[in-house]
Amino acid sequence: MFDFKELEAFVWVVRLGSFRKGATKLHVTQPSISDRITRLEDSVGESLLDRSARPVQPTLRGREFFTHAERLLEGRDEAMRLFQDEESFSGTLRLGVIETIASSWCPTFMRRLAERYPQLTIELMVDISPFLHQRLAENDLDMLFAMDGLAPGLCAIQTPLCTFEMGMFAAPELAATLRHGDMETFADTAFISFSKQARPYSELVAYLTALGIDTPRIHSTSTLMTIMRMSIEGLGIGVLPVATVRDAVDAGSLERLTLEEPLPPMIYDAIWRRSNYPSFCASVARLAKQCAADYAQDHGKLSSPTTVKGYVDT
Predict the structure, then answer these.
(1) How many C-alpha atoms does 78 have within 13 Å on its Cβ side?
(2) How far apart are CA 240 and CA 232, in angstroms?
(3) Do 154 and 293 form a contact (C-beta atoms < 8 A)?
(4) Where is coiled-coil annotated (predicted)?
(5) What is the pLDDT of residue 268?
(6) Which residues contact 119 (CB under 8 A, 6 or more apart)?
(7) Is the dihedral of CA 191, 192, 194, 197 positive or negative?
(8) pLDDT in tens, 155-213
(9) What are 122's strand-pairing partners?
(10) Which of 98, 112, 264, 306 has the largest count of CB atoms under 10 Å?
């Protein structure tokens, strides 16, 4: 069976009409060109070039084969451009993101991704980290932005993406009650967090247990926006990524509570399977990291938090 080097030798000798010129074009010696074409002719079982003609001419069968050889080389070059020119990427990216990212910098990221790769098709899945990791392991996703790191045994690449500082927020009326109350007031107040399967929920339970609140009342939901709306309505203390509630705090709809000990941050990674577009996914991860950094810069420091007696600095 012939290979691409033999096809290239044949095509360029026909185009230039000379073994010498073909060798120069391909940066090899003339004997190497001759050997490649001889091997090609042995593979197909007949002569493809009339070596007695000047310039060298293809035989009748050689002219027919030349057309197919050019197509084969063009197909090879087109296939290689998939890996050499990322902007022309035209495949489908199955991307999983956690809801916090979907509600913060993901829209900007999606716009910039589409601008960079106009031929790209995106299948976006929004879910909690454990379910996204499961889908990646089952090869239902190519890439994810989530917590919990790389699953053991999975052949994948992991890179740090972003970190969200966490805080507790309450509607102004509830914040005023907490401000004039004590630890018991705080402990009797409901909390609002992510679903029980998500890490922020278990970390909140551990945090409150360390404060001596063994049986906290925690409302749970799967979406950040629902936590925010429930907090604004005064249904409890919302446990939320600080940057995502900047607008609500600036508008006076929520106040941040000052905690004696900070809540554990939400740390996210970009993870992608080694077998699914690894170079392209690395480029996507770099873009996502930049979008996350831009979002953090635009949603920086909040106004001074509300001090609540009993569980904060006083």
Answers:
(1) 7
(2) 12
(3) no
(4) none
(5) 93
(6) 88, 89, 90
(7) positive
(8) 889 999 999 999 999 999 999 999 888 899 999 999 999 999 888 999 999 999 999 99
(9) 93
(10) 98
